[in-house]
Amino acid sequence: MPLPSILTIPKADTGMQEWLFAHARDHEEIINAIQAQTGIKLTVYNLDQADKDMALWMERHSQAHNDMNSVVCVAGSDLDIVDWAHPNQIEAWLYGNYQEHLGVRTALRI
Ligand SMILES: [Zn+2]
Q: Fewer CB within 10 Å, N or C, the chain?
């Protein structure tokens, strides 16, 4: 269960790539659990790769959250906007993202 590792981005040079990988695996686990429990097959978006300006990644990620939140009836927060150049914004975004993953996992009991 990779969930705890998505709350922070590791400080190493490869930290963002590690985070993207762990976070994408968590989305896949959730998608698989939703399919197993409800029969609903959600789209698997490419969340492993960062985009140059991150805008396209943010769009795919927001859609992934909207998809999973709507199935399990978890209220989503505003994860559409973060300035990746500002550590405080990144920290707040990471926490909001973590809370949604946790909420969906709790609803699915995984
Ligand atoms: Zn996410």
A: N
What is residue 85's predicted lDDT score, i.e. its pLDDT? 86
1 CA to middle of ligand 1, Å? 14
Ligand 1 center from residue 27 Cα (angstroms): 6
pLDDT along the chain (110 residues), means of 10: 77 90 96 98 94 88 96 86 88 94 95
Break the chain into its structural domains and give their ranges: 3-108
Q: In this structure, which residues have their CB less than 5 angstroms from ion ligand 1? A: 97
CA of 6 to the centre of ligand 1 (A): 9
- Distance from the alpha carbon of residue 36 to the mean position of ligand 1, in angstroms: 20
- Report the candidate in 4, 7, 56 with the shortest Cα–Cα distance to residue 64: 56
Give me the helices (H) in the chain, please: 15-38, 55-72, 87-108
